[in-house]
Design a protein that fits this description.
three-stranded antiparallel β-sheet, 6 strands, mainly alpha, about 475 residues
C-alpha cells in the first residue's frame, strides 16, 4: 500500500490510519505534525488553523466509520472512542493524537455527534433539540460528558464512549427509505426484525449483518425522527401511503411471525437439499467402489433427509397459502375502507343536491323557462315576417331585364366577331382573275361566314339599324365578287 505521493506505507500501520492517509486530503504528510499536536492552544492565536484541524479529524473519522474501520466493532453509524481508537491512530513518528477531545466536543455541541445513550433514550427528535439552549451551556455539557472541567485542561486520552454520527445516519436512512418504498400492500410492509436487518445490510452494501448498535440507531432514527416506521422486538412495520403514523398491531406481529417461520423453513430446505445431494454422491461413490455397507448407510441417510425435505416443503406450501389468504383479506379491508369513504362522499354530495324532489323541481323550472324562451322567439319571428312584404311581379320584371341585358352582351360579342371574320375574308380576295380553286375556297369560306353570321343575327331584332347595315353588305357581296372575277 502506498500514499498518494507514491511513498510506501509501513506494514505496522493500522488499517484505520492507512485509510486516512490514502483517502483524506487533509491527512497529507506535511499536515500530520499539526494534526497530532495539542492544537487547542491555537483556538485563540490561530482560530482558522484550529477549525481546520477540527474539521480534518471529524471528517476523517466519519468517513472511516462509514467504511467500518473504527476499532471496537464494525459500526458504521457509531464512533467508539477510547484507548483502542488512540492506539489505531498511533504513528511511529508522531505518536498518538493529543487533541481528539476538542474534536468530539465541538461535534457534540454542533449536533453532528450525539452520545449514544442520549440518542437512544430521548423522546424528542434530534432536529427539535438543535440550537436549543445557551451555547455556553452546551459547551459545558459536552465537556462534562467528556470528563473535562475546563477547556484548557490537557487530556492525552480520548474520551471513552460511543457517539452517533448524525451525517452517516441520515445517509443510511435515505438509502433504506428508497429501497423500502417499493412495498405497497400491508403484508409487504410488515417485516420480521431479522429480515429487516438483513435487507438493510444488503441496501447499505455491508459484507455482514448490521451490528446491534447500528440497527438500534437506525430504527430509532426512522421511527422517531422520520416517522417512517414502527417496531417492536419481533416486527417492523413501514408507513403506508396516506398513513400519518404507523403502529404495530397484534395482527402485524402475527404476520411477522408467520413470515419469520417461512424464512426459517426456506433456510432449512436449502440445508436439507444440500444433505440429500451430499448423501446421493456418497451412495454413488460407494456403489462404484463395490462398498455395499457404506452405500446402504448413505442411501438410508439420503432417504431420511428426502422425507424431511418433503414434509418441510409441504409445511412451507401451507404457510404460503395462509399468507396469501391474509394478503387477500388485507386487500379486501383496504377496498372496504375506500368504499366506505366513497359512500360518505356520495352521501355528502347528495345532501348538497337536496334529494330527488329538489332535482325534479329544478328540472321543471328549467323546462318552463326554456318554453318561455321559445314563445318569445316565435312572437318575434311573426312580427318580422308581417312587416316585410315582397311584390313577386316586381321580382319577375327585374329578373327579365337582367336576362335581356345579359343576352344583349352576348349578341354584341357575336356581331363583333362576325365583323372581324368579314374583314379577314375581304383581305383574302385574289387580285387576278381566273383564280380557279382559290375562288372556290373563298366562296366556301364566305358561305360559312354568312351562315354563322345569319345565325347570330337571327337573335337580333330585325328593326335595328345595325341589322340593316349587315344585310346590305351581304347583298352586295355576290355582285362585288362577280365584278372581281370579270
Amino acid at each position: 500500500m502506498r500514499l498518494p505521493g507514491g511513498e510506501a506505507l509501513p506494514h505496522t500501520m493500522s488499517e484505520l490510519l492507512c485509510f486516512l492517509l490514502q483517502h483524506e486530503e487533509n491527512f497529507r504528510r506535511v499536515r500530520l505534525p499539526s494534526l497530532y499536536s495539542d492544537f487547542r492552544s491555537q483556538q485563540a492565536i490561530n482560530p482558522d488553523g484550529y477549525k481546520t484541524n477540527l474539521s480534518a479529524w471529524e471528517t476523517g473519522l466519519t468517513h472511516a466509520a462509514q467504511a467500518g474501520l473504527i476499532p471496537g466493532g464494525k459500526d458504521i453509524l457509531l464512533l467508539r472512542t477510547g484507548e483502542s481508537l488512540l492506539h489505531a491512530l498511533e504513528t511511529k513518528e508522531w505518536g498518538k493524537p493529543l487533541a481528539l477531545t476538542p474534536v468530539i466536543a465541538a461535534a457534540v455541541v454542533e449536533g453532528r455527534m450525539i452520545p449514544l445513550p442520549e440518542f437512544l433514550n430521548s423522546s424528542t427528535s434530534i432536529y427539535e433539540r438543535k440550537g436549543a439552549g445557551s451555547p455556553w451551556f452546551l459547551v459545558s455539557w459536552a465537556l462534562q460528558q467528556l470528563g473535562l472541567r475546563r477547556v484548557q485542561s490537557v487530556t492525552l486520552n480520548s474520551p471513552t464512549g460511543g457517539y452517533v454520527l448524525v451525517g452517516n445516519v441520515e445517509k443510511a436512512a435515505i438509502e433504506v427509505i428508497k429501497a423500502m418504498d417499493v412495498r405497497f400492500s400491508r403484508i409487504d410492509r410488515v417485516l420480521p426484525m431479522k429480515v429487516f436487518a438483513a435487507e438493510v445490510a444488503m441496501t447499505l452494501e455491508q459484507p455482514s449483518d448490521l451490528t446491534e448498535d447500528d440497527l438500534k440507531i437506525l430504527l430509532v432514527y426512522l421511527s422517531r425522527d422520520k416517522n417512517y416506521l414502527a417496531y417492536n422486538t419481533q416486527a417492523v412495520k413501514l408507513r403506508g401511503k396516506g398513513e400519518r403514523s404507523p403502529t404495530v398491531t397484534t395482527e402485524d406481529t402475527n404476520i411477522a411471525s408467520l413470515k419469520s417461520l417461512m424464512v426459517d423453513l426456506n433456510a432449512q430446505l436449502e440445508t436439507l437439499n444440500m444433505k440429500v445431494t451430499e448423501f446421493d454422491r456418497k451412495t454413488r461413490f460407494a456403489v462404484a467402489n463395490k462398498n455395499r455397507v457404506v452405500a446402504i448407510a448413505a442411501l438410508r441417510s439420503k432417504k431420511l433427509y428426502e422425507t424431511v425435505f418433503i414434509r418441510r416443503s409441504e409445511t412451507l406450501s401451507q404457510l404460503e397459502g395462509i399468507c396469501n389468504k391474509i394478503e387477500e383479506a388485507a386487500d379486501q379491508i383496504e377496498v372496504m375502507k375506500v368504499m366506505q369513504a366513497s359512500s360518505s362522499v356520495l352521501k355528502g354530495l347528495n345532501t348538497e343536491i337536496g334529494g330527488v324532489e329538489t332535482v325534479e323541481e329544478v328540472l321543471n323550472e328549467l323546462r318552463n323557462e326554456m318554453e318561455h324562451v321559445g314563445d318569445v322567439e316565435a312572437i318575434i319571428n311573426e312580427a318580422a315576417q308581417a312587416t316585410v312584404v315582397v311584390d313577386e311581379g316586381v321580382i319577375e320584371e327585374e329578373l327579365e331585364a337582367l336576362e335581356r341585358q345579359d343576352q344583349a352582351k352576348d349578341d354584341e360579342k357575336a356581331i363583333f366577331e362576325t365583323k372581324k371574320k368579314l374583314e379577314l375574308l375581304d383581305s383574302m380576295v385574289p387580285s387576278k382573275p381566273g383564280a380557279g380553286s382559290e375562288e372556290r375556297i373563298i366562296q366556301k369560306a364566305h358561305s360559312d361566314v354568312v351562315d354563322s353570321s345569319t345565325r347570330a343575327l337571327g337573335r337580333l331584332s330585325i328593326d335595328s339599324d345595325e341589322t340593316r347595315v349587315i344585310f346590305q353588305k351581304r347583298s352586295q357581296e355576290p355582285a362585288k365578287l362577280e365584278t372581281q372575277q370579270t
